[in-house]
Amino acid sequence: MKLYRAALMHTPGSPFAVPDALQTHDDGGLLVEEGRILACGSYPDLRAAWPGAEVVDLRGGVLLPGFIDTHVHYPQVRVLGGLGMGLLEWLDKNTLPEEARLADDTYARAVAREFLAALASNGTTTALVFGSHYASAMDVFFGEAGASGLRVVAGQVVSDRMLRPELHTTPERTYTEGRALIERWHGVGRSLYAVTPRFSLSASEGILDACASLLREFPDVRFTSHINESPREIETVRRLFPEARDYLDTYERAGLVTRHSVFAHNVHPSNRELGVMAEHRCTAAHCPCSNSSLGSGLFPLRRHLQAGVHVSLGTDVGGGTGFSMLKEGLQAYFMQQLLGAEGEPLGPAHLLYLATRAGAEALGLADLTGDFGGGKAFDAVYLRPPPGTTLDTVLRHAEDPGRVLADLFTLGTQADVAQVWVGGDVVYQRAAASLEVSV
Ligand SMILES: Nc1nc2[nH]cnc2c(=O)[nH]1
Ligand SMILES: [Zn+2]
């Protein structure tokens, strides 16, 4: 039994629903046994109640629940930085040529390792991962994900039009390869499967129906895709699906809008779409860095909240600008500021919730991870800025926990991530002298 001692913060509730959702302990303790949290509270109280527990002294930094990235592309880590393009040009010129390279398993393995290492070193402990178009690259990915210790929900991406021929499949292969991957990997270790048509623009009704068949056969499997990202994309989908009422309807008619569905972006939704999403309790994964970089638009967070649609956060690497969920939270804040009177004012508690607990809820994993509640897995990120950095200076002068959290989102980077745990296992440790001091 270990007692981790640090300043700690988490959001067991939603700050969009309750005013005191942020819980903090300046001198906090987390009691952990076999990777599970037994208790979370003030260190002196826990120390008195469990005097025999081994103390891990992490004072000087802040312990947060591990970040949960609900939209990130495994094959795109090497093509980050493709600036100056809108979505469709960016896919065509920057991204799809790289995705085709994952036909080679050796290449795919190197990319998978880089990708998983980047998640862990940024403090992300759970990710909903858009996969590769190649089934063999997904076998490689799930193998590497198991070795990394991270929680991943991932699936083979499927498309049968409008991309490039080597990335296209058929409804039949969608079903047979998807089924084989689910049987091999869903529920194995910390991995789950997500059925993943790329977007309706590149999917025939046949492909969407094959995806629905998989979901009917494996009801516990998750679903993810893109929606309502850029005006040109939306217009093309309208032309490709003349019968559909709107973009969501292309998925809805196939039976793909469920509690297990996570739709990335949704920057330009209609009120009807928001109503249906709320009714089916699916999630919009907001990706503010990507929406800014690709010029997709300003996410209408308030309209989602007013309609009752659940919202989580994603980095959308490589349309986004990196793996940091701290940066993503800050960009979400910026975009609501830029919306003026239509923006939803976000405080640090909202940013922490969006980066952690909201993702766990989106993925149906809120009983397992996303906050430090008793019985949950010890999935955590320890942020400790190197001495002399601006964040280090600012934190020394922060007057209350809310301000500490705001400072972490404003100034925190990958360099401030000192250690990361999943289920009590260390999955990342910054190269330095050991931070664990047992007393
Ligand atoms: N941002 C983003 N949008 C997409 N829509 C279809 N594919 C993609 C992708 O790879 N990135
Ligand atoms: Zn994406």
Summarize the structure.
This protein has 439 residues and is an alpha/beta fold. It has helices spanning 43-49, 87-100, 105-121, 135-148, 171-185, 205-217, 231-240, 247-252, 271-280, 288-293, 301-307, 325-338, 348-355, 357-362, 390-396, 401-411, and strands spanning 2-10, 23-33, 36-42, 54-65, 67-73, 124-130, 151-155, 157-158, 191-197, 222-227, 261-265, 283-286, 310-313, 380-383, 417-422, 425-429. Helix 4 (135-148) packs parallel to helix 5, helix 5 (171-185) runs parallel beside helix 6 (205-217) and helix 13 packs across helix 16.
Topology:
Elements: E1 2-10, E2 23-33, E3 36-42, H1 43-49, E4 54-65, E5 67-73, H2 87-100, H3 105-121, E6 124-130, H4 135-148, E7 151-155, E8 157-158, H5 171-185, E9 191-197, H6 205-217, E10 222-227, H7 231-240, H8 247-252, E11 261-265, H9 271-280, E12 283-286, H10 288-293, H11 301-307, E13 310-313, H12 325-338, H13 348-355, H14 357-362, E14 380-383, H15 390-396, H16 401-411, E15 417-422, E16 425-429
Parallel strand pairs: 1-4, 5-6, 6-7, 7-9, 8-9, 9-10, 10-11, 11-12, 12-13
Antiparallel strand pairs: 1-2, 2-3, 4-14, 14-15, 15-16
Bound molecules: guanine and zinc ion (ZN).
Guanine is lined by residues 73, 87, 91, 95, 198-199, 226, 229, 290, 316, 319.
GO biological process, one term: guanine catabolic process
InterPro entries: Amidohydro-rel, Guanine_deaminase, Metal-dep_hydrolase_composite, Metal_Hydrolase, Metallo-dep_hydrolases, MQNX/HUTI_composite_N
Domain Aminodeoxyfutalosine deaminase/Imidazolonepropionase-like composite: 28-53
